[in-house]
Automatic annotation (TrEMBL), chain A:
Key words of the record: 4Fe-4S, Electron transport, Iron, Iron-sulfur, Metal-binding, Repeat, Transport
Keyword Repeat listed: yes
Keyword Disulfide bond: no
Protein name per UniProt: Glycolate oxidase iron-sulfur subunit
Organism: Prauserella muralis
Function text: Component of a complex that catalyzes the oxidation of glycolate to glyoxylate.
Family matches, as InterPro entries: 4Fe4S_Fe-S-bd (IPR017896), 4Fe4S_Fe_S_CS (IPR017900), Cys_rich_dom (IPR004017), Glc_ox_4Fe-4S (IPR012257), Helical_ferredxn (IPR009051)
From TrEMBL, chain B:
Protein name per Swiss-Prot or TrEMBL: Glycolate oxidase subunit GlcD
Annotated TM spans: none
Taxonomic lineage of the native organism: Bacteria, Bacillati, Actinomycetota, Actinomycetes, Pseudonocardiales
Organism whose genome encodes this protein: Prauserella muralis
Signal peptide from the UniProt entry: none
Domain of life: Bacteria
C-alpha cells in the first residue's frame, strides 16, 4: 500500500455512475476511463501499485481530466473528486514529470515581485492596503491579461482595497501537481490581504476558500449580492436592451455553489439569456487550454455553437481563464465576451467602450 | 484468457485502431460496474460505431471462442457487465443517435447507447412521454435498460421498460442481424422475440437499435410527500391507496435512514425525524390529478400520516423525485460498502416484507436501510457497511439469502428490476425451478451455440 491518496476520500465512491452524464470528457469519448468513476477506478488501481504511475492510461487520464469538478455536486455520496485529483496529480506530475509549460508558469507566479512587474505595463486597479479589508484579489492571470476587470470592480465597489503586492493564490500549483505549494501560497496571500478577500476569478475563490475558510472568501458576484448591490443603468445595443448570457465558473459553481448571483446581476442591467450548458466547462480549465489545446477546443465547440444560436450580444464570464477562452473562441463573431464587473460598469456608464477590448 | 495475435488484429480491423483497447490501464475501468464486490478481467475493450461493426466483432469472437460482454453505461446492480470470464467488453456508447421521433405514430427509433434521460427529454420537447424512468435515467442507456427490462419511479401506472419496446434490431453471436417486431402495435408473426430479448441481459444478442412506444405528454402532474412513524405504516397507506382503486403514477418510500442520507445531499428540508417518507405523484388531466391528490392525502392521514404536503411547482416536484433517485448513492454516506437488494412481493404483502427485513437485520446485527417502489411491491433493502469491518460482508450475504427466501415465501421474487447477472444466478433456481432453468439454458444455446455472449450470467 502506498499513500498517494487519502483513503477515506478514495473509499467514498460506490461506482454508481451518477456522475457520468455531468462529465465533459466522458461526453466526448463515451469511454469509462475518461469518466469520473473510471478515473477513480484508475486511482484505486494506482494506490496499491496494481498499475504503475507511468501506465499510459494513468498518464493520459490524469491529464485529460479538466478538473472542472462538475462531478462533485451531482455525486450523492459526497465524493470529493477535486481533492482526489489534486492528490493524483501530486503523484502523477511530481517534479520533472510535470508538463513544462505548467512548470514555467508556476515558477513565475510564485514570485510576487514578478507579478507586480505586470502592473508597470498594465494598468490594473491599485490602491493602498486596507487594514480590515475587504480586499480585491488581482489575480496573476487577470492583472496581466485583463487589467480592466479589477478597475471595473473597484469602480463599482470603491471600498475594495487592491494593493499591488499580494502574490498568487496557489490554485495553479494545486491543480498542477504541487498542492503543498498551493496551500502555502494561499496562506501567504491570506496573510497579505486582510479581511474578506473578494475575487473576480471563480477558480481562485474556490482554492482560497479551501485553505483560508469559506468565510474569508467571496466571489465577486456573490459579494455584490451580499452587499445588496443594485446595479445602475442598462446595457443597450442598437437602441434596445442587450441580450446577455453567462458562462458559469466551474469552481465558483461546483465548489462554492455560486450561480444564482451573477444571473440576477446580469438580469438587472440586460435581458438575461440562459445558455444550454451554461454550467458546463468551457475548456479553459486553468492550464488545460495551454497543455491540451486540441481537447480544450473540442470542449468549447458546442458552447460556441450554443452562444451563436442564442443570438446574444454579450456572454459574461466570471473567471479570467474562461474570459480568455471565450474571447479567442468568439474571434470574428458579433458576440462579445466580457467579465461580469465590466458588464456592470458598462451599464453604469463608466465602463470601457467598446467593451470586450482592453 | 489472453487474446491471440490474430484475434487482436481482427478486432482492430473490425472497428479501427482508435476504438480498441488492450493495455492494463485502459482495461481497468471495465473490470466492474455499479455492483459492489464483483470484478473481472477484460482482455479487450471494443467500441463499435454501428451494427456492421458489432456483427464483425461478434464474428471474430465466435471464431476465436472469445467471451463478449455487451455494456451500456455499466450502471446495473447485478454484476451483469462484469467480465467474469475475461474476453471482450463491447461498449455501445458510440451508437448514440436518436434516429427518429414520430408524433404521428407515437414512437421513436433509437440506438442503444442513448441515455434514457436524453430520449425522455427529446420526446418531451415534442410533447411526448417516454415512461420508463429508472432512478439511473441520467446515465443508464436505452440498450441497457431494455436488456435488463428496467423499472423505475413510474412503474405503478405505466409499467416497466418491456411495455414500451415495439421492436428491436439485434446481432446474434453467430453474426446474423435480426429485426424483431417493428413499428406495428399489433404483430403476432412468430414467437415474441422482442419480449424475449427484453431482459435478456446481454446473453442472447446485442441490441443495436430499438423502436420504442411513446405516449402523449399528460397535461398536468403533481407530486407530494407524506411522513409516517414507520415504514410499515407507510406500507399500510400504500395498500389502502391501491385498495381504494387509486393507481397513481408514483408511490415510492424511504425509511428514516434513507431520508437522512438523501437530505444530507439534496438539502430539500425533508423531515428527518419521521420513520418513513412516502413520495406520491400522478399525472393526467387536471381534475383527475387534483382528485387523486386529495384522495391520497386523505388515505395517508387515515393510515396515520404525521403530515402530508404537495410540491408547489414542477421544480419542487422534480427536486423531490431527484432526491428519491439518489437514495442508493446517498446512503453510502453512512458506510462505504453498500449492498443493495431488489426483493419484490405482491403489493398487499409489502408491510409484511418490511417487517421481515427488520427482523432479519436485527438478528444479524446489520444496518439495513430500505427504500423502494412501494407501489410495485419492490423493495431495495440496502446494507450499509464499513468495508474494513471483518466478516461484515459475509453476514450481509447471509442476511440477504434469508431476505430472498422470505420474499419467495410471501409469493414474491428475488429480483424485481435489477436483474440476475452474476450476482443472483445462484438464487435463480429457487425462483424459477429446475425445469424452467433447463429451458432457459436451451434457449441460450439456440441463440448462442458457442456460448460466447456474457458467460457466467443468465442462461449459464
Ligand atoms: C443509483 C442507481 C439507481 C438505479 N435505479 C434503478 C431503477 O429505479 N430501476 C431499475 O430497473 N434499475 C435501476 N438501476 C439499475 C440500472 O441502472 C439498470 O439496470 C439499467 O438498466 C442499466 O443500464 P446500463 O445502460 O447502465 O446497462 P449496463 O449496466 O451497461 O448493462 C446492463 C445489462 O444489459 C446488457 N446490455 C447493455 N447494453 C446492451 C445492448 N445494447 N445489447 C444487449 N445487451 C446489452 C449488459 O450486458 C448487461 O447485462 C439503478 C442503478 C443505480 C446505480
Ligand atoms: S463519484 Fe459519486 S456519483 Fe460518481 S460513481 Fe462515485 S459515488 Fe457515484
Ligand atoms: S473534474 Fe470534470 S473532467 Fe474531471 S472527471 Fe470530474 S467532471 Fe470529468
Amino acid at each position: 500500500m502506498s499513500d498517494i491518496f487519502d483513503k477515506d476520500l478514495l473509499q467514498r465512491c460506490i461506482s454508481c455512475g451518477f456522475c457520468l452524464p455531468a462529465c465533459p470528457t466522458y461526453a466526448l469519448t463515451g469511454d469509462e476511463a475518461s469518466s469520473p468513476r473510471g478515473r477513480i477506478t484508475l486511482m484505486r488501481a494506482l494506490e496499491p501499485g496494481e498499475l504503475a504511475a507511468d501506465d499510459p492510461a494513468l498518464v493520459e487520464q490524469s491529464s485529460f481530466c479538466l478538473g472542472c469538478r462538475a462531478c462533485e455536486p451531482v455525486c450523492p455520496a459526497g465524493v470529493r473528486y477535486g481533492a482526489l485529483l489534486e492528490q493524483w496529480r501530486d503523484h502523477q506530475w511530481r517534479g520533472r514529470r510535470r508538463p513544462w509549460p505548467a512548470r514555467l508558469l508556476m515558477g513565475i507566479v510564485a514570485r510576487a515581485w514578478l507579478l507586480g512587474l505586470q502592473g508597470l505595463a498594465r494598468r490594473h486597479a491599485r490602491t493602498r492596503p486596507a487594514p480590515a479589508g475587504p480586499s480585491l484579489l488581482l489575480g496573476c492571470v487577470e492583472r496581466g491579461l485583463y487589467p480592466g476587470v479589477s478597475r471595473a470592480a473597484v469602480r463599482l465597489r470603491p471600498e475594495l482595497a487592491a494593493p499591488s503586492r499580494q502574490g498568487c493564490c496557489g490554485a495553479l500549483h494545486a491543480h498542477n501537481g504541487d498542492s503543498a505549494a498551493g496551500a502555502r501560497l494561499a496562506r501567504t496571500l491570506g496573510g497579505r490581504l486582510p479581511g474578506t478577500i473578494v475575487t473576480t476569478a471563480g477558480g481562485c475563490a474556490a482554492h482560497l476558500a479551501e485553505h483560508l475558510g469559506r468565510d474569508r472568501v467571496r466571489e465577486f458576484g456573490e459579494y455584490l449580492a451580499e452587499q445588496g448591490h443594485r446595479p445602475a443603468g442598462e446595457v443597450r445595443v442598437a437602441g434596445r436592451r442587450a441580450r446577455v448570457a453567462l458562462q458559469d465558473s466551474c469552481h465558483g459553481r461546483n465548489a462554492l455553489g455560486v450561480h444564482r448571483q451573477p444571473r440576477q446581476l446580469i438580469a438587472a442591467v440586460a435581458d438575461y439569456v440562459e445558455l444550454p450548458g451554461a454550467a458546463d466547462c468551457c475548456g479553459a480549465a486553468g492550464t488545460y487550454a495551454l497543455l491540451r489545446p486540441h481537447d480544450s477546443r473540442r470542449v468549447l465547440a458546442p458552447k460556441l455553437a450554443a452562444i451563436e444560436q442564442a443570438d446574444v450580444d454579450f456572454v459574461v464570464a466570471v473567471n479570467p481563464g474562461c474570459l480568455r477562452q471565450l474571447r479567442r473562441g468568439l474571434r470574428g463573431s458579433r458576440v462579445r465576451a466580457v467579465h461580469l464587473a465590466e458588464l456592470l460598469a458598462l451599464a453604469g456608464g463608466n465602463g470601457p467602450y467598446p467593451p470586450g477590448r482592453r | 484468457m489472453r487474446l491471440g495475435a490474430t484475434a487482436v488484429r481482427a478486432l482492430t480491423k473490425a472497428v479501427g485502431e482508435e476504438h480498441v483497447r488492450f493495455t492494463p490501464g485502459e482495461l481497468a475501468p471495465y473490470r466492474r460496474d455499479a455492483t459492489p464486490l464483483f470484478t473481472g478481467h477484460p482482455d479487450a475493450v471494443v467500441f463499435p460505431a454501428d451494427t456492421g461493426e458489432v456483427a464483425a466483432v461478434l464474428g471474430v469472437a465466435t471464431e476465436h471462442g472469445i467471451p463478449v460482454v455487451p455494456r451500456g453505461a455499466g450502471s446495473n446492480l447485478c454484476a451483469a457487465t462484469v467480465p467474469s470470464h475475461g474476453g471482450i467488453v463491447l461498449v455501445l456508447t458510440r451508437l448514440n443517435r436518436i434516429l427518429e421521433l414520430s408524433r404521428d405514430e407515437l414512437l421513436a427509433r433509437v440506438q442503444p447507447g442513448v441515455a434514457v434521460a436524453r430520449l425522455a427529454e427529446t420526446a418531451a420537447h415534442a410533447g411526448l412521454l417516454y415512461p420508463p424512468d429508472p432512478g439511473s435515467r441520467g446515465v443508464a442507456t436505452v440498450g441497457g435498460t431494455i436488456a435488463t427490462c428496467a423499472g423505475g419511479l413510474r412503474g405503478l401506472k405505466y409499467g416497466v421498460t418491456r411495455n414500451y419496446v415495439l421492436g428491436l434490431e439485434a446481432v446474434l453471436p453467430t453474426g446474423e442481424t435480426i429485426r424483431t417486431g417493428g413499428r406495428l402495435w399489433k404483430d403476432v408473426a412468430g414467437y415474441d422475440l422482442t419480449r424475449l430479448l427484453t431482459g435478456s441481459e446481454g446473453t442472447l444478442a446485442v441490441i443495436t437499435e430499438a423502436t420504442v412506444a411513446l405516449l402523449p405528454m399528460p397535461s398536468h402532474s403533481r407530486t407530494g410527500v407524506a411522513y409516517f412513524g414507520s415504514l410499515a405504516e407507510a406500507g399500510q397507506a400504500v395498500s389502502a391507496i391501491l385498495a381504494a382503486g387509486v393507481v397513481p403514477a408514483t408511490l415510492e418510500f424511504l425509511d428514516r435512514k434513507c431520508v437522512a442520507a438523501v437530505e444530507a445531499h439534496a438539502r430539500l428540508g425533508l423531515r428527518t425525524d419521521a420513520g418513513a417518507l412516502l413520495l406520491f405523484g400522478d399525472d393526467g388531466p387536471i381534475e383527475v390529478v387534483a382528485g387523486n391528490m386529495v384522495r391520497i392525502r386523505t388515505l395517508c392521514t387515515e393510515a396515520g400520516a404525521w403530515e402530508t404536503t404537495l410540491a408547489e411547482d414542477v421544480a419542487a416536484a422534480d427536486a423531490l423525485l431527484a432526491a428519491r433517485r439518489c437514495s442508493l448513492p446517498a446512503l453510502s454516506r453512512l458506510g462505504a460498502l453498500t449492498i443493495l437488494e431488489d426483493a419484490t412481493v405482491p403489493r398487499p404483502r409489502l408491510a409484511d416484507m418490511v417487517a421481515r427485513i427488520d427482523e432479519i437485520a436485527d438478528r444479524h446485527g446489520l444496518h439495513i436501510a430500505t427504500f423502494g417502489h412501494a407501489g410495485d411491491g419492490n423493495l431495495h433493502p440496502t446494507c450499509v457497511l464499513d468495508p474494513g469491518e471483518h466478516g461484515a460482508a459475509d453476514r450481509a450475504h447471509k442476511a440477504f439469502a434469508e431476505i430472498f427466501a422470505a420474499a419467495l415465501e410471501l409469493g414474491g421474487t428475488i429480483t424485481g428490476e435489477h436483474g440476475v447477472g452474476a450476482a443472483k444466478l445462484p438464487f435463480l433456481a429457487d425462483r424459477v425451478g429446475d425445469a424452467q432453468l433447463a429451458l432457459l439454458r436451451r434457449v441460450k444455446q439456440a441463440f448462442d451455440p458457442a456460448g460466447i455472449l456474457n458467460p457466467g450470467k443468465l442462461g449459464s
